[in-house]
Every structure is written in C-alpha cells, then in structure tokens.
Amino acid sequence: MGNKVREEIEGLNKYIGGKPISEVKREFNIDKVVKMASNENPLGCSDSVKDVLKNLVDNTALYPDGDNYYLRKSLSQFIGIDEENIILGAGSSSLIKVICNTLINKGEESIMGEITFVLYETFTKLMGGKAIKVPMKDLALDLDSILDSINERTKIIWLCNPNNPTGTAFTTKELEEFLEKVPKNVYVVIDEAYKEYVSMENYPDSLSLLKNYKNIIILRTFSKAYGLASLRVGYGICDEELAEYFNRVLNPFEVSLYAQNAAVEAIKDKEFVEYCYDYNKKQREFFYKAFKKLNLDYKESQSNFILVDVKGEDREINDYLLKNGYIIRPGYLLGCSGYLRISVGLEEDNKKLIELLNKYFREK
Ligand SMILES: Cc1ncc(COP(=O)(O)O)c(C=O)c1O
C-alpha cells in the first residue's frame, strides 16, 4: 500500500481474546464447548436484567441517552460518589483507551507490571507513548520497583488490582504508602475489574482515597461479576475536571440502550453478585485442592481465574484441552509462558477440566 499508517500502529498487535465457542465447535467438530478463557461469569446475569432486556427491543431504532442519566444516578447512589466524578464507556477497555487518548503525549511513559492486562501497553503505544514494564515479584505487582521506575517522562501508572492474569492483589496500606510517594502530576489508574470477587481482608477502599489523591482514576466493569460482558459497559471514577476532559474524548452514545438499562438493573440485584462471589470462592478452593493433588504450583487468586504452573507445557495442554472442548488461556499469550490461566467455571465443568488434566499428566 502506498499510503502508510501511523508508525505507532505498525508496532501494535491485534488484541487476541479467548477463542469463541462457535470457532472451537467448527474446528474440532464437537458439540459441547466450554469457555474458561476470558474470565466471564459462568452463572450468567441476574434474571431481572434479562426481563429488562426483553422489554427494550422496540426502542432499538433510537440513539440511547448520551448522558447515561439513569445509570449515572444509580451508580452515584450505589458507590456514594458525585455524578460528575463518573465516566461511562463501552467496557472499561474503552475507558483505558480514552485515558491514553486524553493524557499521553508522544514520548511520555506509562508504567505497568510485566505480566498484567495487555491493553495498558497497547493504548500507551497507540499514542506514541512508551510502555515501561516492571518485573513482577513472585507474580505480584512490585510496587517498590514501579516507584523506582518513575521519571520526568512518566504520565500514568497502571495498577491492576486484582491483577490479571496473576490474580494477586495489594492491600490498603500498600496502596496508601505507594500513593504518598507518587508525584502528583503522575496519574495512577487502579483497575478493579475483578473487585467483586476479592475475598482478602484489607483490600483497598479506593473510593475513599479520591479526596486526598486527585491523580487517581478507578476503573470498574459490569463484564465480570455482573455478567454483562456482551453488552459492553464499564465505568471510571476520578476527579471532576479530569472526567470532563475524558467526556470530550469518549464516543457519543458510547453506552448502548441495552447496556445502560441492564447495568441499572444489575446494580439492584445485590443477591446475585453475592451468590456469584460465594460460588466462585468455593470453586477456587476446589481448583487449589485439585492442583495440589496434581502437584502443580498455582497462585492463590483474589479473582475469578487462577494461574497455574504447568511446567512449561502450556501450548501442549492448551491444544489438548481445545480438542476436548475446553477453552482456557495459555500463558504464552499472556506474557507468562509455562502457565495456564483458567477462568473459574461451573462446578461440573471445573471437575471435567481437572479430569482432563489428570488424564493428560497420567498419559504423558
Ligand atoms: C484487568 C481488566 N481490566 C479491564 C478489562 C476490560 O473489561 P471490559 O472492557 O469488558 O469492561 C478486563 C477484561 O478482561 C480486564 O481483565
């Protein structure tokens, strides 16, 4: 092609998500395929959300409310933060992009863990920024080394808490000590996509820090515990002035009619989210026990996925599981070769997956 794309785009890779179920069915000619690759909610979403969605079809021809009036109000009440401090996007992925679009000048740096959510790097580079990847400490974000990496070019620090794909999380004390040392002109994004699954004590109440730290941006999503991944809706909480800038960059009508209404309803059904939390916690324990029996090291997870060390065989095991109808994420696609990231699924699927792993190691 004669016309060249921007040099930043030449250096990017396409985001590779977990394989879709339909593709694996076609490829291997199998009927039952289970996806445990993208940390979605195996329990679906609240029944009341489904009812709301059914009643919206007649409004499909109209644009949704560009100000997200009702969702903004519900969220504001739900989290106890003023409406002006909330931004809404088509998933928190979109907000990660908007943050980079708004803040990163060419040559500026953003700092992240070496093994973390890939879009921080992608969208930093999109803007001509440089992604500084800090080595992990026992698979967790190393906050001290992140601090040591700050320089005059640093614009954003990305803290994924719990961290995808390692499942680790840091505490209130660790976060506060960290924020005290970060220069005020550096933004700290705290991505809490999996917060609803956290079971540890001392997980930071990041919202309470907003008053003292105007440089933090908190990201959350309805894609995980609320089970609305296909609808694409996430939100951010930050300083009001900053939110106003982000709103200039966001696409008009970002959040669809379906997504807005589903999210309003999902917030109301606290029982559903509690049920998902309990279910996930129990299934995590099931996996821990099973991995111990298989002699596989794993990282205790605060999330709805577990990173397990399969001794360098992530590619082989991934292929083997795919053929048997199980989609997981091999570590080589996530910057941690030799590991598998398994999203916690339904009880029967988790059992079946462990049976398959048993068989794999027995027959090896
Ligand atoms: C850490 C983290 N942040 C953000 C996202 C984006 O989620 P969504 O765009 O569906 O809100 C994901 C998705 O997997 C994630 O793992």
Structure described in brief:
By secondary structure, the protein is α/β, with parallel strands linked by helices. The chain has helices at residues 7-10, 21-28, 47-54, 69-79, 92-103, 119-126, 143-148, 172-181, 240-249, 257-268, 270-293, 314-323, 347-363, and strands spanning 34-35, 86-89, 109-113, 130-134, 154-160, 187-191, 216-221, 234-237, 305-309, 326-327, 329-330, 339-343.
Number-wise, the strands total: 12
Total count of helical runs of at least 4 residues = 13
H and E string: HHEHHEHEHEHEHEEEHHHEHEEEH
Q: What is the strand arrangement across the widest sheet?
A: 2-8-7-6-5-3-4
Helical proportion, percent range: 25-40%
Overall geometric form: globular
- Overall pLDDT metric: 96
Low-confidence stretches: none
Relative strand content: 5-15%
Cofactors, ions, other ligands: pyridoxal-5'-phosphate
> What composes the largest sheet?
7 strands, mixed
